[in-house]
Automatic annotation (TrEMBL):
Cellular localization per UniProt: Membrane
Domain of life: Bacteria
Origin species: Streptomyces incarnatus
Name of the molecule in the record: Membrane protein
Topology in membrane: Multi-pass membrane protein
Keyword Isomerase part of the UniProt annotation: no
Keywords, ordered alphabetically: Membrane, Transmembrane, Transmembrane helix
Transmembrane segments: 77-97, 117-134, 139-156
Tagged with keyword Zinc: no
Pfam families cross-referenced by the UniProt entry: Rhomboid_2
Gene3D superfamilies on file: Rhomboid-like
Coiled-coil regions listed: none
Length: 196
């Protein structure tokens, strides 16, 4: 359903002029200005829009990551991971940006930075999927997740890079939600099944 909502909102964005689109998204952005005015509204609204205007890549991402995690954890636990990653990573990354502004390391205009999208929830879901995979494959997957989300922090990081990394850590911290959710998936057993 979330992917369907993103399709509708993406189509709506394509009908807007570029100037109105920026104004419209900024009012739904989890930037410092909007968070200080109406945090609940923008935390919900920002998860319903894609800033890039490209919906098709999300079909693949939702199929590969969100769908298996929702099937494995159940809708309530999956949503909990999404909400925790989206909300906490937003608050932490915007808090870091606010500190950078106060310390003179970022311009004051950054309080109105455009920040909408579903990538923090996606990063949390990608990370929690670590616990669905059996060892030793789990460790290779975990390493890949950490490299993908930590690498941007080493190369002129932005508050969004920090948010993605924090989201991944939050997803890993959701381990208690994965307990009792069935046997871990072993890629070796899957590959051997057609032959056996």
């Amino acid at each position: 359903m979330w992917l369907g909502v993103l399709f509708v909102t993406t189509v709506a964005l394509h009908q807007m002029s570029p100037e109105f689109e920026q104004h419209f998204l900024r009012q739904r952005s989890t930037n410092i200005h909007e968070l200080s005015r109406n945090p609940v509204r923008v935390l919900v609204a920002s998860a319903l829009w894609i800033d890039s205007g490209r919906w098709l890549p999300y079909i693949l991402l939702y199929t590969v990551f969100h769908a298996p995690v929702e099937r494995w954890l159940g809708t309530a636990r999956w949503l909990a991971v999404c909400a925790l990653a989206h909300v906490l990573a937003t608050l932490i990354s915007e808090g870091a940006l606010l500190k950078a502004i106060r310390d003179g390391m970022a311009p004051h205009s950054a309080v109105n930075t455009l920040d909408v999208g579903v990538s923090y929830a996606l990063a949390g879901v990608i990370a929690v999927l670590t616990y669905r995979i059996a060892a030793p494959w789990r460790y290779a997957y975990l390493l890949a997740v950490l490299v993908v989300f930590a690498l941007p922090l080493t190369e002129g990081s932005t508050f969004t890079d920090l948010g993605h990394f924090v989201s991944a850590l939050i997803g890993l911290a959701c381990y208690p939600l994965t307990r009792g959710r069935g046997k871990a998936w072993n890629p070796k057993e899957t590959l051997a099944a057609p032959r056996g």
